[in-house]
From TrEMBL:
PANTHER family, sorted: RURM1 PROTEIN
Designated name of the protein: Ubiquitin-related modifier 1
Transmembrane segments annotated in the record for this chain: none
Taxonomic classification: Eukaryota, Fungi, Dikarya, Ascomycota, Pezizomycotina
Pfam families in the record: Urm1
UniProt main location, coarse: cytoplasm
InterPro entries: Beta-grasp_dom_sf (IPR012675), Mopterin_synth/thiamin_S_b (IPR016155), Urm1 (IPR015221)
Gene Ontology CC entries for this record: cytoplasm
Length: 53
């Protein structure tokens, strides 16, 4: 990930609370989190679970 936008997703070397990470439509926790090796064609999605009211 480019360092210029990293702070939007990372806090203290972890994914920020309230951000769901999907790898090929599966929760990244099921894929081994940071141990997962990205492959060509993988689809990575960051979803905010926080919203204003």
């Amino acid at each position: 990930m480019k360092d210029q936008r990293k702070e939007l997703f990372i806090m203290e070397n972890n994914v920020r609370p309230g951000i769901l990470v999907l790898i090929n439509d599966a929760d990244w926790e099921l894929e081994g989190e940071e141990k997962y090796e990205l492959h060509s064609g993988d689809n990575i999605v960051f979803v905010s679970t926080l919203h204003g009211g």
